[in-house]
């Protein structure tokens, strides 16, 4: 039997690769995988995204009382967990003692998965909300956010990190294909959050009040300077006496110490490309020894 005859779409089996793109897959996902969640498709059709029980449009009202202070926007695998820790520490005035006793998942909410009460971070003020959604699904709520932190990354590094994520994630079939097979998915715009270059373009082309853009690679090279700039943007002041503490704390080994072992069995994170908060396969510039000239030219041409 084929998909048109009602069988489970191949995209949701442990096959060579997993693709969330076709209408039948969207229907199957909505009806049988997450009964309490719905899915919304980007207007460009480059990916589908899990949306919490309440709609994004209702979310505009939920943030009207300023419960949402800082929205952290990233594509998947662009250092979201790392930058979130920076933002959280800045909002805590650089108090490292709080970071040592706080589990990572209690520090933020995910717009795609949490209900609008943000119960996972009850009592956290100000709040941090993370999203990987594309511009066309978020543009109507941006005006309600006091601060928007946007993180971009070299698309080659991002693509490599996603490759390792696909290989490690049981919900994506623990991708068994080669790098070339995976790159074909990228070219065909069939990765779960769509093509990175497609995702980032509208953000770069639109002027958004109270949004500041940070480049992952520059943060890696100059943590002190860029965290200082981030602090000024978020707090409207500097806390220079805490800068070195923050820079030292955000070393990945420190953050791993407060992170719980990922649970791949949880349905709410089925489409969440950061099940492991601190996945560090595919490090900075490792793509140089992996991609051929044709692949690099393809990425540069579409960037």
UniProtKB/TrEMBL annotation:
The keyword Hydrolase belongs to this UniProt entry's keyword annotation: no
GO molecular function: sulfotransferase activity
Keywords: Membrane, Transferase, Transmembrane, Transmembrane helix
Highest taxon in the source lineage: Eukaryota
Transmembrane segments: 68-91
Boundaries of every Sulfotransferase domain copy: 71-296
InterPro entries assigned: P-loop_NTPase, Sulfotransferase_dom
Family statement drawn from the similarity comment of this UniProt entry: Belongs to the sulfotransferase 1 family.
Name used for this protein in its record: Sulfotransferase domain-containing protein
Organism (species): Capitella teleta (Polychaete worm)
